[in-house]
Amino acid sequence: MWVHTRRELRGRRRRRAHSCWDHLILAPLWPKYGVNLGTLLRTCDAVGACLAVPRRPWTTEALAKGNTLRRESCVHWVNDPVGWLRAQREAESAVLGVELVDGATRLADLRPARRRTVIVLGHESDGIPVEATTLVDEAVEIPMIGTGLSLNVAVAGSLVAYKLAGLS
Q1: pTM for the full predicted model
Q2: Which part of the chain is the tRNA/rRNA methyltransferase SpoU type domain (predicted)?
């Protein structure tokens, strides 16, 4: 087994942050905990995605605190989550919801995104609001064998983002 040095790893990565790739957008539109936004922002950098977040009094601070890369990242600010999702569908983006529903696609069966895709993440306790579920083209389920009902929203979003980016 070969362990790569920091220098080798840096040589394989981008020289600077992207401004907006816009092919994958992680959208935790109903966040409960700011720490999850920071984690998702880091995932976005890793997979070349953007983050769509609602304008809340605490959101900017949560992103700044969670941005361990300490550089500009691609963030879309959303005033009206349901209206924003509607606009994404009208722009012909695929809208994928991470939610436990009948007929959901298992994470293992997801294929890399071939077109602009929005990954909708619901509230940590309540999931995706009913008024937004009609705007989701496909639901994704992350199978679990433990006693919990779901994963942390940042973990779930990261797993789906890696899969859709073709990195897992």
Answers
A1: 0.85
A2: 33-162
User: Quick check: helix, strand or coil at residue 150?
Assistant: coil
What's the start-to-end Cα distance of the chain, in Å? 20
What gap in Å lies between CA 156 and CA 160, rounded to an integer?
A: 6
Q: How far is CA 56 from CA 9, 19, 31, 53, 81, in A?
A: 36, 22, 10, 9, 12
Nearest-angstrom CA–CA distance, 89 and 149: 29
Distance of CA 145 to the CA centre of its chain: 23
158 touches 40 (CB < 8 A): yes
Name the CATH topology of 19-164.
Answer: Alpha/beta knot (3.40.1280)
